[in-house]
Write a structure and sequence with these properties.
Elements (H helix, E strand, L loop, with lengths): L3 H6 L1 H18 L4 H22 L5 E3 L3 E3 L1 H25 L7 H18 L4 H19 L8 H30 L4 H8 L7 H18 L8 H7 L2 H26 L5 H23 L4 H20 L4 H28 L15 H4 L1 H15 L5 H15 L3 H25 L15 H23 L2 H7 L7
Antiparallel strand pairs: 1-2
Helix pairs in contact: 2-3, 2-5, 3-4, 4-5, 4-11, 4-14, 4-19, 5-6, 5-11, 6-7, 6-11, 7-9, 7-10, 8-11, 10-13, 11-14, 12-13, 12-18, 13-14, 13-17, 13-18, 14-16, 14-17, 14-19, 16-18, 16-19, 17-18, 17-19
Amino acid sequence: MITSIDFSVLTPLLLLAGSSVLVMMLIAIKFSHRSIQITSLLLFVISFSSIFYVHNLIPHYIEPLFVIDNFSLFIMGLIIFSGLVVNMISYVYFEEKEESPKEYYVLLFLCTLGACVLATSKHFISLFLGLEILTVGLYALIAYLRGRQHNIEAGIKYLVLAAFSSAFLLFGIALIYFQTGTMDFSTLAVALKPFKSLPLLFHTGLGLMLVGIGFKLAVVPFHMWTADVYQGAPSPVTAFIATASKGAVFAVLVRFFIAIDGFRYQTVMFVMISIAIASMIVGNLLALQQKNVKRILAYSSIAHLGYLLVAFIPGTAMSLQAVSFYLTAYFITSLAAFGVITVLSNTEKDAESINNFKALFWDHPVLACIFSTALLSLAGIPLTAGFVGKFYMLSAGIQSGFWALALVLVLSSIFGLYYYLRIITAMFSGEQSIAPQDKKAHPVFYLISSIVLSVLTLMIVWFGIYPSGLMQLIEQLQIGH
């Protein structure tokens, strides 16, 4: 039976769902793009603020689908914050385009809702429901600009491969349900207790599930779609995919493995270790060959998911802390990086070639410094949040004796320095920028976007120099079953 407190703890999800309906109503009565964008911004702020209200009511279980604990609230906060930033940088991007941008904000709310449902899931039904709300919205967002050369292609590729991955995921869930008779994460652990090793059907089902989840995370060997979708999607959408979409899936993966104590099964861990090593090596090597900035960031994201797996695989309390800190650092850094690309893009095409950033410092020194800071954080240079995040992940891996993973992380990060520094070098060399310049939106909105990106940059540096405040918050995180 649903109680009033159930509705209270679901406030962020209800607000996101209601916001999408409200924006649809505003579109129906023909509000302007600017009015809808500002309304959406206020609704995102309200949704984010509701996280603090719910904090006093946790932990709370809404059987059998959801658990609202401080870990799910933390991830929801990151996801809604990402949606808020993407909303703020989207106006200058879509105001210049020929397509009506109003429905974009409805889809953004629905994708954020799906990601938050994933973050609170403790049951296969809510997991699949959240995943499909997120994925179906992304189909439309990726192909939103129909007139662009790569957009429809990217949308169709994502549609086809996402459908295949969902089929793998569903078949895996079906096999696990057939073996155990339950779809609740915590009950699965009880059903597995009589077995000394994983039963064959459960083993097969878990393998199929990892294929489906591996596609959503874009880890090797399920990474084929990443570069084309990152390049083809509108830049704000790419920022959302890189942060909220992947963060939500990784959060539910963490909750699932902790609930079933999957870390004690050697075969499963061997597969995860192989995926982590392959992702770190292949992601960095593929990024070395690229001249398109969005494709570089796409392949580097594969490597970063490999880094996250280094912290995840030990399955200790420190693993949860390292994963949470690195997700925070990666969210902030990716939003800043793709935000710069968004601001510099024009009506015809995105600013995605390295040549678009040549001598950027002499024309837009603030944007050049913001992008440089983001790239240095992705590379793991000291005094940035990315460095502290990698340090915690290395500590989590080494503390549990995973020296090989730690060594691959360090060596692959060295390769990553090259392609990040190549972009930075281009921004500070030459005499004249050839970045797209024609702008249609009001200059005030470019100023607002630049302020947002500057705040993100300050957060990158602040968490890199003084990470203790964030770590104190993260140390309190616990996962309820």
